[in-house]
Design a protein that fits this description.
mainly alpha; about 300 residues; 3 domains; two-stranded antiparallel sheet
């Protein structure tokens, strides 16, 4: 079996479309061919991504971002277009529109709306009513108006929340950077989690990072994050706690790509206590490739495929 035929058969493995003898020949080829093994790992990650059944709510700017990325790729790596941050005028118009949309529910005179506009611009551009330290250049802060009060003298008091965006940088070994990466590994955005877990793998010697990787493998809802965490745990495959967690993941994870990688990690260190785990998996496994991998591991350990 040559590399060209193996590449064509790899996608069929993930869907159980190969005959047992074809799967045996494929497995033998992968054990001796590093290039095809890498291709298998690449398609395994892609299969894990396609296997996801949860549909996250997409941001409204995703289409623009994808078009910008495509244009950048066509132009040979041109920098990605970044949508400019909203300035104070755009923010004010949005706040005013939100206020007017429910205007019929309020008894505030129409004149108060004009006072709001005057007061807002006075506070924004002259600093009246706000300390100078609270003002920031346009684009550095995002403001949301929470309440407006007008008095008889014509002055307006506006309460607003400002969210500032700050960029920090540093090596992954920096305690502050590591803390932010650990927090990011629990963010709602799976893309942020994948990137953060990938960076944390370089600090796997830290007990806190190791625990974060184990938590991602066992509990993260995104298979891509789980696969990234498994990559980081490869050098720790002989650790008792790591093997205990991997054994649980092997029996509970619903993604075949994850299960295949867990089997690889478990059999990389001979451990007779894993025989029962592999036997249980063989009996219930519905993916041919995972089942054959478990059967081969049991044979290598001179163990029976069935349970007793």
């Amino acid at each position: 079996m040559n590399c060209d035929s193996v590449v064509k058969l790899i996608p069929l493995c993930f869907y159980g479309e190969l005959m047992p003898e074809e799967e045996d020949r494929l497995e033998e080829h992968l054990l001796s061919c590093a290039a095809c093994t890498r291709e298998m790992e690449r398609q395994r990650a892609m299969a894990a991504a396609l296997d996801q059944r949860c549909h996250a709510e997409l941001p409204p700017t995703l289409l623009d971002a994808c078009r910008a990325d495509l244009l950048a790729a066509i132009q040979g790596g041109a920098p990605r277009y970044q949508k400019p941050a909203k300035g104070p005028w755009a923010l004010f118009l949005e706040a005013l529109a939100a206020t007017l949309s429910g205007f019929h529910r309020y008894r505030t005179p129409v004149g108060a709306v004009a006072l709001v506009a005057v007061g807002f611009f006075a506070a924004r551009f002259t600093g009246a009513g706000l300390p100078a330290s609270s003002l920031s250049p346009a684009g550095e802060a995002f403001s949301t108006v929470r309440s407006v009060e007008a008095d008889s003298s014509g002055r307006v008091r506006i309460a607003l929340d400002e969210t500032r965006r700050r960029v920090v940088s540093g090596p992954t070994g920096d305690p502050g950077i590591q803390r932010l990466l650990l927090d990011a590994a629990r963010e709602d955005n799976p893309a942020v989690r994948v990137e953060s877990v990938g960076l944390l793998t370089s600090r796997r010697d830290s007990e806190e990072v190791r625990d974060a990787l184990l938590n991602a493998v066992a509990h993260d809802s995104n298979a891509g994050v789980r696969l990234k965490a498994l990559d980081g745990l490869k050098p720790l495959a002989g650790d008792t706690q790591v093997r205990k967690t991997l054994a649980q993941v092997l029996l509970l994870d619903d993604n075949p790509a994850v299960r295949m990688q867990v089997v690889d990690l478990l059999v990389s260190h001979r451990d007779d206590s894993m025989v029962g785990v592999l036997q249980n998996l063989v009996q219930k496994e519905d993916n041919n490739y995972v089942r054959l991998k478990c059967e081969k591991a049991l044979k290598d350990m001179n163990a029976s495929i069935g349970t007793f």
